[in-house]
């Protein structure tokens, strides 16, 4: 490690009952590893679910997987250079198991995940709610263009890249009618991506204020009717059932929000056959989607008000507040370690 690099950092450790700011030794970097100084971390809904007990996660752990930071040090054969501003993928695959070899590294049989690893294991600095994070060998790291603000770049590591993955099965969207279910960060991002691709986009949400916000990102309030593509980020069985019923002939339904148990959705096989429907699921994303996310955000940074949906960062010592209360009128809280 560079002799000028810090030897100790601070991390916000989720204990199961609260957040404990602890001093943590920074390890010597091994081959392919990278030490990043976190500039800004945004708070993903999955971390809120963890803190509220709706989602299981290793405990204790350092949460946080949407972030942007500066490379301070790199082990041999690391994929980036010291001084680069970067984002990084949530998942790290082994590269050798059958799933990795088939192109689904996010579903690696031994997958490891940023912000989802035990603090008392061999990778304590795995989460972005810390002053520094250690990125392991084998992960995808992408340089951030100079003009892209931190608040715009950070969500690329989860929300934007997941949207890129979710829209991939839909194919060419130009001229197609697209329904987006859920107007949170992913849904609003999907509306923008679909509109940018030339689709006519409608969006639904139980919160009318979010639907109104989506207008700024190319999404119009939904008024029913048949659609060619539906993408669900809500995780609501009712929304999924409605979307499935509205698919026109050749329609495609992509499920990306159903990440917790929910009531089953009835499916009529004859309807699927006669309408030539496709139903598919997407969970996490591949390295190409993170590259596409940064490219998309950079290309549309003057088209859509990306920074407006991220709250001003709170101090690192107040990270617990970001995990317990949503910022008014914003889709993402943020923390500046």
TrEMBL record:
It comes from Mycolicibacterium pulveris (Mycobacterium pulveris). One of its GO terms (molecular function) is oxidoreductase activity. This is Alcohol dehydrogenase. InterPro entries: ADH-like_N, ADH_phosphonate_catab-assoc, ADH_Zn_CS, GroES-like_sf, NAD(P)-bd_dom_sf, Zn_alcohol_dh. Its cofactor is Zn(2+). The lineage of its organism: Bacteria, Bacillati, Actinomycetota, Actinomycetes, Mycobacteriales. The keyword Nucleotidyltransferase does not apply. Keywords: Metal-binding, Oxidoreductase, Zinc. The keyword Metal-binding applies. Residues 31-141 form the Alcohol dehydrogenase-like N-terminal domain.
């Amino acid at each position: 490690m560079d002799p000028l690099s810090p030897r100790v950092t601070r991390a916000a450790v989720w204990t199961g009952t609260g957040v404990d700011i602890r001093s943590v030794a920074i390890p010597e970097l091994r081959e392919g590893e990278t030490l990043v100084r976190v500039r800004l971390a945004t708070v993903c809904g999955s971390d809120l679910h963890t803190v509220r007990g709706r989602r299981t996660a290793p405990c204790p752990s350092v949460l946080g997987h949407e972030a942007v930071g500066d490379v301070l040090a790199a082990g041999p054969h690391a994929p980036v250079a010291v001084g680069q501003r970067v984002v990084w993928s949530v998942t790290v695959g082994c590269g050798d198991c059958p799933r990795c070899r088939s192109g689904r590294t996010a579903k690696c049989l031994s997958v490891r995940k940023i912000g989802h690893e035990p603090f008392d294991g061999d990778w304590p600095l795995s989460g972005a709610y810390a002053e520094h994070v250690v990125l392991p060998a084998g992960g995808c790291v992408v340089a951030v263009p100079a003009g892209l603000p931190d608040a715009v770049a950070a969500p690329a590591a989860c929300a934007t890249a997941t949207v890129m993955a979710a829209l991939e099965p839909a194919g060419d969207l130009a001229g197609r009618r697209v329904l987006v279910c859920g107007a949170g960060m992913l849904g609003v991002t999907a509306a923008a991506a679909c509109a940018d691709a030339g689709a006519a986009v409608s969006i639904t949400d139980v919160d009318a204020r979010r639907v109104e916000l989506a207008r700024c990102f190319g999404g119009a309030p939904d008024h029913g009717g048949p659609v060619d593509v539906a993408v669900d980020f809500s995780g609501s069985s009712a929304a999924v059932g409605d979307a499935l019923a509205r698919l026109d002939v050749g329609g495609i339904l992509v499920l990306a929000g159903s990440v917790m148990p929910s009531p089953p959705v009835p499916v009529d096989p004859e309807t699927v056959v006669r309408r030539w429907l496709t139903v598919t699921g997407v969970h996490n994303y591949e390295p190409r989607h993170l590259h596409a996310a940064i490219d998309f955000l950079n290309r549309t940074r003057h088209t859509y008000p990306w920074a407006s949906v991220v709250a001003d960062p709170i101090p690192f010592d107040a990270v617990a507040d970001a995990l317990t209360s949503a910022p008014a009128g914003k889709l993402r809280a943020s923390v500046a370690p």
